[in-house]
Amino acid sequence: MEISGSSVFYAGLGAMQAGHQRVDQAASQIANTSVERSATSQSSDYQAERLRAVDRSQQMDLATSNVEMALGKHQAELGVKLAKASDEMLGTLIDTYA
Questions:
Q1: pTM for the complete prediction?
Q2: ∠ CA 74-79-82 to the nearest 5 degrees?
C-alpha cells in the first residue's frame, strides 16, 4: 500500500494559488471600476456613455468583486490548512512506523 501525502500537499498548494489568483482578479476589477468612475466623472456625458457601452459586457459589479475577493481569501486559507494537515499527517506516519 502506497500512501502519497505529497499529492494532498500539492492539492493544498494548488488551492492556495487559485485563491491568490481569484483575489488578484477581484482586486483588479475593483480598481478598474474605481478608475472608470473617476474618468467618467471628468468627461462629457457622450464620452461617458461610450466608455460604459464598450466595457459593460466585461465588467463585474462592485458587490460581486467583493464576494469573489472573500471567496479567494477563504480558498487560500483552506489550501494552507490542507497543506499543513498533509504535512502533519506525513510526519505522524513516518514517526509511527519508523
A1: 0.63
A2: 125
d(CA 51, CA 53): 5
Pull the grid cell for residue 94: 513516518
End-to-end CA distance of the chain: 16
Reading the block at residue 45, the C-alpha cell is 456625458
- pLDDT tens digits for range 1-16: 344 557 888 899 999 9
Cα–chain center distance at 86: 22
Query: Alpha-carbon distance 11 to 62, whole Å?
Result: 30
**For residue range 30-60, what is the model confidence (pLDDT) as tens digits?**
888 766 555 545 556 676 666 666 555 455 5
